[in-house]
Amino acid sequence: MDPKPKNSIDSLLQESRRFAPSEAFAGASVARPELYSEAKADRLGFWADRARELVDWHTPFTEVLDWSNAPVARWFADGELNVAYNCLDRHVLAGNGDRVAFFWEGEPGDTRTVTYAELTREVKRAANALAALGIGRGDRVAIYLPVIPEAVVAMLAVARLGAIHSVVFGGFSAESLRGRIEDAEAKLVITADGGYRKGKVFPLKPVVDAALEQGGASVEHVLVVRRGENAVGFTEGRDLWWHDTVDAASDEHVAEGFEAENPLFILYTSGTTGKPKGIVHTSGGYLTQVAFTHRNVFDLKPERDVYWCTADVGWVTGHSYVVYGPLANGATQVLYEGTPDTPHPGRWWELIEKYGVTIFYTAPTAIRSFMKIGRQVPDGFDLSSIRLLGSVGEPINPEAWVWYRDVIGAGTAPIVDTWWQTETGGIMISALPGLTTLKPGSAQVPIPGISIDILGEDGTRVDPPHGGLLVVSEPWPSMLRGIWGDPERFRETYWSRFSTPERWRYFAGDGAHVDEDGDIWLLGRVDDVMNVSGHRLSTTEIESTLVSHPIVAEAAVVGASDEQTGQAVVAFVILRAEHADAQTPEEASVALRAHVAQAIGAIARPRQVFVVAELPKTRSGKIMRRLLQDVAEGRDLGDTTTLADTSVMHIITSDVRG
Ligand code: 6R9
């Protein structure tokens, strides 16, 4: 493992701009300053109060945290709730059924406005339809959909029945989808014929068919939403149209209470080995933390705000901050199917103007791509409704931060830079608007009730101002409860490195620096996980994919810094002798880039594939990716003395640079 953070700490720490809360926020924010002192005085009492304040319980809980089986936590374990009821029925019962839940906009410009009353009815219908297909508590349902209202309906219908959803991002390949369906042994797949992306229909149902052709034996039915109108084949007895099945079902359905630790979803994420990890989240603690953070970090005033999080529901940000947090809080949202630049580069700004978006949450990679196009595009729209901006997915560089605030936030909107992970379920580190003086580039402070430490390699806490590895030192309500089917990997990956007999400590895999004020600056992954456009990719997974191609003998993959995507996938491959002469390096590169996109998904397609004669290895045979990263980023080589053969790097450099 390379403990050296990949961002330039010097450039970050020279950042000295400070932005105190504006008049509009100071004293008027949802977040109360006492939250910090209350949480500090009694952390468990604090979370119990939040759980009672923000969640409706079918059966109230009496115990807060059971940590006796650590590192598997049980929060509010004797309480019972229905997550979908909390996101739907209770708002309707409180008289807010006419409030808009979603202003949905398709990429071609078609629109749907869905109120809480309509969403509740639709979820009840879908729950009845799913129950009729044999779905009940604990069953797994794979969801492979575009960002259309049915994606939210499907997730909530599964939750309503106490079943477990596994949403697979629509950009993943048949092979990736099959792996996830099989790992979770899904009984049902919910998909669409296709969805819109960059002005074209991309097929989804055919990908599901391909995934199920060679596996997925557990799947009994495939439920298909009509969206793309593209031609699809149907397997008799297995495949059903959503509009036949769901529309015909009754819209009466009483939500049953399930225990707080009933699993809510599995979401797969890349780890340091090839196989994606199925991160398991449960109900009561998860809903408490996502509702609390959504309300306080985004200063949500549900009666007034129009909130837009641009994440796809296939990522954790879509789960926690499009579906569960905002709906639990009764928020009104924009939901957009397509890409930011279709049919024109101002599409997002047009939507902000059209719907009067007040709170906007997106990723640094998007902000950087808008910066590159120039401010004349957003300047062509009225963005004056915006009052708060959020960032997530990777560290935001101070230049992008300041551009975001100036150009999108009129120079006044606070920016909350939110650090968290698929595993943490909800936001862990962020400023609170109205309370925190902002520092561009720093995620700043743990939210109330969360304990974060920065440790040195030896596990001792580093004193400010120093860098180290980020750990969470106390259990938190929305923490992962495990890796689906692999308790050993769960302990090994997250808990083995820094736990002591006295204390369990969760290792996040990120490097961080803490400054004199105690503010935290995230410095990127310290393991073999890349962050491309805010999405996690495993170097090992891409390497295995490359090696699975018949022309490849060996492969090494690194994440090289990239102006737009943060990091980009760069691969170095050695061809098998019999193929090395049969094609040019350019032909091999084209074929291998396509192979990776086909096997994993377009997001994993390498920016470059270099055909080389050798790879740099230590005497023990470990590939020194750090040196390849130097090559990929065009730097002078670092220390090569631990290489088994020190001449190797000359050969590689001349292969790459010609
Ligand atoms: C929510 C999400 C998690 C990894 C995480 C870290 C990086 C996310 C960040 C950030 C710096 C932020 N990350 N937010 N780094 N500042 N505000 O992105 O989950 O896809 O699981 O990725 O993303 O490296 O470890 P996930």
Automatic annotation (TrEMBL):
Binding of Mg(2+), residues: 547, 549, 552
Record's keyword terms, sorted: Acetylation, ATP-binding, Ligase, Magnesium, Metal-binding, Nucleotide-binding
EC number(s) recorded for this UniProt protein: 6.2.1.1
Catalytic activity: acetate + ATP + CoA = acetyl-CoA + AMP + diphosphate
Modified residues (N6-acetyllysine): 622
InterPro entries per record: Ac_CoA_lig, ACAS_N, AMP-bd_C, AMP-bd_C_sf, AMP-binding_CS, AMP-dep_synth/lig_dom, ANL_N_sf
AMP-binding enzyme C-terminal domain: residues covered: 541-622
Cofactor: Mg(2+)
Annotated ranges, domain AMP-dependent synthetase/ligase: 93-484
Annotated binding of CoA, by residue: 197-200, 317, 533
Residue ranges annotated for the Acetyl-coenzyme A synthetase N-terminal domain, each copy included: 34-87
Post-translational modification as stated in the protein's UniProt record: Acetylated. Deacetylation by the SIR2-homolog deacetylase activates the enzyme.
Binding positions (ATP): 393-395, 417-422, 510, 525, 536
Gene Ontology molecular function: any one: acetate-CoA ligase activity
A Pfam family recorded for this sequence: AMP-binding
Record's function text: Catalyzes the conversion of acetate into acetyl-CoA (AcCoA), an essential intermediate at the junction of anabolic and catabolic pathways. AcsA undergoes a two-step reaction. In the first half reaction, AcsA combines acetate with ATP to form acetyl-adenylate (AcAMP) intermediate. In the second half reaction, it can then transfer the acetyl group from AcAMP to the sulfhydryl group of CoA, forming the product AcCoA.
Family: Belongs to the ATP-dependent AMP-binding enzyme family.
Name of this protein: Acetyl-coenzyme A synthetase
Source organism (scientific name): Antiquaquibacter oligotrophicus
